[in-house]
Amino acid sequence: MDDARLRTGEEPFPSRALPIGSPGRKSSGWYGMMMLITTEASLFVYLLFSYFYFAIWSGGSFLPSELPKFNLSAPDTAILLLSSVVVWWGEKGARKGSHTQLSLGLLAGIVLGTIFVGVQIMEWADKPYQLNTSSYSSLYFIITGFHMVHVVVGMLILLALLVWSLLGYFDRQRHAPVVIGAIYWHFVDAVWIAVFFTIYVSPHLG
Amino acid sequence: MTRSLPDRLRVLWETVPGFYGWIASVDHKSIGIRYLVTSFIFLLLGGLEALVMRIQLAQPGEHLLTPEQYNQLFSMHGITMIFLYALPVLSGFSNFLFPLVLGARDMAFPRLNAFSYWVYLASGLFMYASFLVGAAPDDGWFNYAPNSLRTFSPGPNMDFYALGMIFLGISTTVGAANFVVTVMRMRAPGMSIARLPILVWGTTTVSAGILFSVPAVSLAFFMLWLDRSFGTHFFDARSSGQPMLWQHLFWIFAHPWVYIIVLPAMGLVSDALPILCRRPIVGYALVVLATILTMVLGFGVWVHHMFATGLPMVASSFFSGASFIITIPSAVATFAWVATIWTGRPVFTTAFLYFAGFIVMFVIGGVSGVVTAAVPADLQLTDTYFVVAHIHYVLIGINLFGVLGAFYFWFPKLFGRLLDERLGRWNFWITFIGFNIAFLPMHLTGLMGMPRRIYTYPNDFGLGLVNMITTVGSFLLAIGILLFMINIWISLRNNTQAPDNPWGAPTLEWVTSSPPPPYNFALIPAVASRHPLWEEQLHAGVSHSVLDRGFVLDHGKEALATTILDAEPDVILKMPEDTPWPFILTLAMSAGFTAMLIQSWWGTGMAGLAILVCLGFWLWPKRSMVQIASADHG
Amino acid sequence: MTGQFLKRLGAVTATALALSPAMALADEWVAGHPVDGQWHFQRSVTPIMDAITSFHDGVLMWTVSLIVLLVLALLIIVMVRFNSKANPVPSKTTHNTALEIAWTVLPVLVLFIIAVPSFGVLTDQLTIPDGVRKYLGGDILFGQVEVPAAALTIKATGQQWYWNYDYVDDDISFDSNIMGDAEREEKKPGQPRLLAVDNELVVPVDTTVRMQITSDPSGVIHAFAVPSFGIKIDAVPGRLNETWFNARETGIFYGQCSGPVRQGSCLHADCGAGGDQGRIQDLDGGVQGGRL
């Protein structure tokens, strides 16, 4: 049938059957997601730049008397990392064509993400300061808040993927949206490591 | 299957006429033209603002404007020219030309492309709506805190600017992502990266720059908005905020931005100028390298806008040194253009004149840049009219002159009509002379010490004459632009069809008709050199681009994706149909930003939900676009 | 010794107001502002401004003008000699390594020529004199100008819209407001509108003055600038910036707020709060500084 695709003469390139659509990583969407991640990563670089700018200029005096603690944040970090692992496992299922594994992985990712958000909200509620209390509190809430928004967006993506998976849109050959959505979720988790180090670890290093 | 291939493709690709087609079209050519027209309207608005200011400044002590009106005018002039004209006009050219020079049928993300335009238009209208309530931004385009905080600026002026810039940033970002992915994926077979036209290099480089720099300014404006609306303490020095953080975040974005709005124009010139000299550009690799190097170095010089803020010596020296170095790639590009003319056979069309004028003004703007990179001189000149003269030489010289030349050059491809050459010459000379009369004496105004952004100045200081000359020149410049519009109007009314390749150019956009059909190329060309149409003269017997046969791709809206480096055929892509969702999503976002402006959180929430619904409709997978691993679907 | 200075200065400041008509005279012979027919920097009265003027008028102007003329000449020559009539067969050369290296190295050399004196002058500007270090002055390559150690420190605080000056070693502090048209006509008719202020900053001639510049913490960013002295530095809330000058001539020297503030309003003559102006004047052996 491919011959019908050429009007005259032979194909200028070695003739082979080209895939149609965007299976796997070859989809344009995957490249698009890479662009989104690039620019979002830059956003977090500037957020953390602002934090360290304050930290350096104030000589540490901008930190609150009670430094951020690990009792909630450390387990929360573990939960978020675990969510990356289960989503990765689900994605592996998609490659094998297993709807069950994919759906389970996505569902587990959403549940763990929800727990992360819940714990984070508890931590916010515990703070003795609010958004407009001081420069530190403004930075604390804007950085963790931006990350929280990304987690929520990531969960919405996982939710959409779960619905599409249950509706049978994906199979072994075509699951580009799963790959694209999963990479975003991994990005959100990776950013948390940087946020965690900046907000929770770096004050204890000084 | 009795209809001819072009007819079948036309049915598949053509946008339906009427209102629905108008809001739903994802054709990169109509989106490109919309970008060009809209940005040109913003250019005219910004120009009118400038003329009003020049009347105010023509003589000492005039009272045409109040200081507050003057503040709003110079702020909106800067915002309009830098954000709403300079990049969008280049995006217009890139949108129109990318698929054509790459031998593709459309951009990688046609719907995102439409979305990018609608958001640009909506954010421009959003910022201009501030005039309707008499509260336009009034702290200059760089909007220094703490002067832009609620304490000193209680009105909604800064909220319009802050939210408008975040809104516009979305358009800029998705547009940039689209250009990068298009270059990675949508090139004709054989168009390896060493065969890319320089305009593609220019736009792709700055698109990468946009992805890294725009978040800085979006964040800065978001923080400013939080400071203003929720009493956070980012920039407010009274409660340990850091006013200087604003300057850092702003210039980390805005210095790369001034390269972002000139490098694509340099790319347009680097491609078109050699064609008018009947030869390939001298030093292709050097010019490409210079483009990339300028962008990369552009991220390392932001502090040179802050020399007077009291920096440590090591910082002053480092950023001064970096600012010297960044002129070297520009010098290299300039020599490449001159050498191209030198070794070529130039034909003096209007476009050529614009490009030659571009080179001269680029050099003047470049050396006045060196003057300000030298900190001792800069400390005298910063915030004076010298800097105003410098930025206008750079932006009008490189951007506007490059763009006007590009209009004369690509107009036949855009609209299928040639612009009149005789009127064009008048247009060029009046614009060129008017511009130089307006801005050359402005260097002196700055040397004499006149600060920028003052709404009037004292008598008897010898500032009256230079300012009057500048005002006269600016009106001459405006007449030049008027002639340009008259030329366009006459050409569009004229019924003479332009030839497909009026300049005898070598690149793919000239293979197809003027203007191109909705599907661009009936057969996807395969290229074997940088100059597919000049191979007989340049590479006889060596390279053979194939233009008269190739992939047909007529089983629905299909395009070819190729590999990143060598551009070997990779995948056949199913391209999206026209869709109204980008437009509807933009409406929802406009509602959201308006709700934030009037601080209606209920409205913001509703708009947020609407946005999610729109995205759902947009991204829902379609069974008709199934992806199949191999091409046996007949 | 400094204390003595300042006591005298206090007296001099007071006198400045009383003697204001005399200042109109001073205006005529030292114009500390732009004048009709001027086409370059304002006249220099400090070693730093000597260096800046010499750097700008010498190295910078010559190199940049030559570059512009060179490219312009090249363009005109090639357009005349190599147009399509004169040169029907374009060369196909796409690159020439020797030439490409030449046109990359050339700009580097030019920049080097500019950068060396530039960094020298910059170092002078940013180093407060200690009495030992030599300064470049007008000879920006080999200059060895002696500048005495700073004998006087003045803190200038930008307010909306006036300057507050504080002689920090003494207890003298006062505000300096721009004068509206009516007040100026009445008190200092010889002085320029939009620049004249009520209380000038007064400083001694031939003395090194350390200026500390800041802004009211609850205010906005201003800039302290006196073109004839070669100083311009931002006044940022929460930051203390430093610069210095040593003026050799007496007179009234004006500066204008160059900061990124709402200048349209702060310079408005009808604006009641006054404006940001700087000026320096001389009286009785003392240079009097203005405010910005």
TrEMBL record, chain A:
Region Disordered, residue ranges: 1-20
Keywords per UniProt: Cell membrane, Membrane, Transmembrane, Transmembrane helix
Subcellular location: Cell membrane
Annotated membrane topology: Multi-pass membrane protein
Domain Heme-copper oxidase subunit III family profile: 31-204
Basic and acidic residues: compositionally biased ranges: 1-10
Gene3D superfamilies assigned to the protein according to its UniProt record, in alphabetical order: Cytochrome c oxidase, subunit III, four-helix bundle (1.20.120.80)
Transmembrane segments: 30-52, 72-90, 102-121, 141-167, 179-201
Pfam families: COX3
Family: Belongs to the cytochrome c oxidase subunit 3 family.
Protein name (record): Cytochrome c oxidase subunit 3
Source species of the chain: Devosia algicola
Source species taxonomy: Bacteria, Pseudomonadati, Pseudomonadota, Alphaproteobacteria, Hyphomicrobiales
TrEMBL record, chain B:
Alphabetized SUPFAM superfamilies for the sequence: Cytochrome c oxidase subunit I-like
Key words, A-Z: Cell membrane, Copper, Electron transport, Heme, Iron, Membrane, Metal-binding, Respiratory chain, Transmembrane, Transmembrane helix, Transport
Location of the protein in the cell: Cell membrane
Catalytic reaction list: 4 Fe(II)-[cytochrome c] + O2 + 8 H(+)(in) = 4 Fe(III)-[cytochrome c] + 2 H2O + 4 H(+)(out)
Main location: membrane
Enzyme class: translocase
InterPro entries: Cyt_c_oxase-like_su1_dom, Cyt_c_oxase-like_su1_sf, Cyt_C_Oxase_1, Cyt_c_oxidase_su1_bac
Residues passing through the membrane, by range: 35-57, 77-102, 114-136, 160-184, 196-225, 245-269, 281-303, 315-339, 351-375, 387-411, 423-444, 464-490, 604-620
EC nos: 7.1.1.9
Membrane protein topology class: Multi-pass membrane protein
A Pfam family this chain is assigned to: COX1
Entry function: Cytochrome c oxidase is the component of the respiratory chain that catalyzes the reduction of oxygen to water. Subunits 1-3 form the functional core of the enzyme complex. CO I is the catalytic subunit of the enzyme. Electrons originating in cytochrome c are transferred via the copper A center of subunit 2 and heme A of subunit 1 to the bimetallic center formed by heme A3 and copper B.
UniProt protein name: Cytochrome c oxidase subunit 1
This protein's encoding gene: ctaD
